[in-house]
Amino acid sequence: MKGLAPLFLGIFGTFAFSWIGLTVIPNWQIGHLNPQSDEEGTDIYPQPQSGMFERGARVYAANGCIYCHSQQVRADYAADDIERKWGDRRSAPRDYIFDRPVFLGKMRMGQDLANIGARAPAPEESPSPAGVASPAAAPAKQATAAGSPSAAPANSPSSARSPGTAPATSAPQSSPSGSPAASTSPPPGQRTGVASPSPGQMANATPGGSSPVAPTAQTPAAPWPIQTEGLPPMYSAAWHHVHLYSPRSINLDSNMPSYRFLYQKRRITGERSSDALQLSASDAPPAGWEVVPSYDAKCLVAYLMSLNQSHPVKDVRSIGGAAAPSPSPAAPVAPAAGSPAPAK
Amino acid sequence: MNTTGIPLKEPAVSAAAGDTEHLERAYIDASTRLPVLMFYTSAVAWLILGTLLAGLVSFKLHSPDLLGNVSFLTWGRLRPAHMNVLVYGWASMAGMGTAVWLMARLCRSALRFPLLLVAGAAFWNVGVLIGVGAILLGDSTGYQWLEFPHYVAVILFISYTLMASWAVLMFRHRRGDQIYISQWYLLGAFLWFPWLYAAGQLMLFVVPVQGVLQAAVGWWYANNLLFLWFGAIALGTAYYMIPKVIGRPVYSYHLATIGFWSYALFSSWTGMTRLVGGPFPAWMVTASIAATILTMIPVATVGLNHHMTMQGYFPLLRYSPTLRFTIFGAMSYTVFSVVGVLISLRSVARYVNFTQASIAYSHLGLYAFFTMVIFGAMYYIVPRLVGREWRYASLIKLHFWASAYGIGLMTLMLLAGGFLQGADTQNPALPFSESIETVLPYLRGRSLAGILLTASHFIFAYHFALMLLGLGRTATVPTFLNPLDAEPSGGH
Q1: Which of A102, A227, A228, A317 is most worth mutating to test chain B (most B CB atoms within 10 A of its CB)?
Q2: Counting beta carbons within 10 angstroms of the beta carbon of residue B206, is it exposed (0 to 12), middle (13 to 18) or buried (19 or more)?
Q3: How does pLDDT run across B322-355, given as a tens digit for each residue?
Q4: What is the pLDDT of residues A213-241, one digit of tens each?
Q5: d(CA B393, CA B412)
Q6: Fewest CB within 10 angstroms: A275, B376, B393, B460, which?
Q7: Sign (positive/negative) of CA torsion A47, A53, A58, A63?
Q8: Alpha carbon of A199 to those of A138, A144, B307, B437: distances in Å?
Q9: What ipTM was reported for this prediction?
């Protein structure tokens, strides 16, 4: 080959061809999507996230969750993700329009998280310990109380932003199940617990003892992990905290790293903290001590619980659609958005 | 063939002309000494660090409580740190060092402006160091292969601009009209990298694209970094080393042309194969699968060209460390590409996407192909820079076999484990945890392979340090792998 010009042009041309073909054209095709809404302009999906969710996503990125967890439900022709109950429809580009960075993932050493928030126990499903007043949870305007002021340290400016913007995935936004959150005494274990399990639930938990709210039958049981006796309801905020702190207390065979550095072990001064973890056996702190989540841990859990693609999306077929899913325990995504969670 | 039975190059030119050429080469080599050794030394240091991180990553995956309570030693931070140290620290620096040396030789021009390169290498080291620190301290961007925060990207880009401007200047001062095959690849690599890096940074951080397209840009970037940067450097190096060591021209120039252009055209389109079934237009995946299948054209032409060049000279593999590593790398290129085609097919991707098989694929590309070729080149180049020969043939042999068995075992473990893992996840009747339990024994096997690779890298680093300290042999002939049967009478 003689002369630099043809070589240079060829090198540039092949590069430009690939760049235009694989990034510019797709950007032109799906790079400017808007949220969808119904005819009345309500029920907007998705909605931008802010505050604790945003920070939670940064914690997710910083700690490499993406190297083991994907956030996408693949189409049924390509994989068995839907049959595995990781979602009731495939993920669509519109689900991610506000995500930055987007955590589609490349690896599944852990399960898919696209709908992990949808798997949280619905409010009605947790028994409410009688007589527990939870005033702190009352201001939770959002059904997902990650934005609940009670959840965030008082000095956090970010938490103040979130109540205004309804979290996109606040599942029961259009369902009656969202309303109880506005009532004065939401039952513990419901979504108010995103960032901090509501005080009542925790206050009743004796250190190292079994939790009063561990009814195994209520949570929609995914095949895995299995609801462990003595632990908070699966996929509830309290459960996420225990899982992040000590994955092997929930599933003995799990190879998930523990994220203990996101938690603080401290001496109980006065009353036991409302958001202390319900740890069992060897993980339990010594008497007089408690383990509490840091603000980053609360944000991470708030973010995880906001992951929810159960809202129907135009042009994507959902199995079962918006109809209430069968109350069978084999339907982990049962409390789909827009559908009242089955009251069992 | 000479009397020893080793098919070495006979002097084809008259003694006087040969001497002149020899002197000229020695002069050019000497001019590259400082920058290339700087690149190589940094690269080897990064290789050792990256290997240690890799060991931790591998062991922690099946023993998750190992060193688990410190934030910067958690798996999720060590893994990107390991990846970035090896990609930007080891592979990029070793690749650039090799490319600089080759460029000077092929342009037949003493290296000008060495300070540009020295400054570039220094900046690059600083950039990688800060970037890895940032990842470990929790400042990763969350985009795979682009985890370095933006301030590091700026440093790397400045550093790279210095090096690329050097390459362009060198090219302008080249002697002779003919541009050799290796130069196509090297020039391509030198130009593709900054475009890629700039495009990736622009589309993810400066003018970020929306939603899932970030993932598409990430895949496009990572894949092209693998092919257009590392792959191009490795192929260019192989095109130089193989003919050089055996003293024979490349079999076919036309095949090489076809190979180069089809490589540039098709391999740059293969990035989207892992997106099958994901939230993307299906045509993107289909186009990438088609491109992946078409990469068989450059694989076949390059493979055929190298094979025909080597025809009759394969016994030399017993003697030349350079040739042994380079041929291993060149053959791995074929294996890497064939595996790439297999796992891109939709029916197979169903089982291997999101499994360890994709880790096997990237290690095939970055280690079995690229790193082995670069090891070969370093065995050739370093003696010419320090004026000493490698001290121990036994260490070279150990390095080669530990690397070869290590990467072979790792690939097999990850491929087999990945397929089984995928088969389990694609069986909804099994709980998800089953797939993890299935793959764990293979991950332990991978750790075993990692021990082999760690040993091989420490051996190499020790040997390299001896060379740097001037403790190599002072012989005038290269260190052959079987010195007992070889009494070399010249040739390299």
Answers
A1: A102
A2: exposed
A3: 999 999 999 999 999 999 999 999 999 999 999 9
A4: 333 333 344 445 567 677 788 889 999 99
A5: 28
A6: B393
A7: negative
A8: 11, 15, 72, 37
A9: 0.89
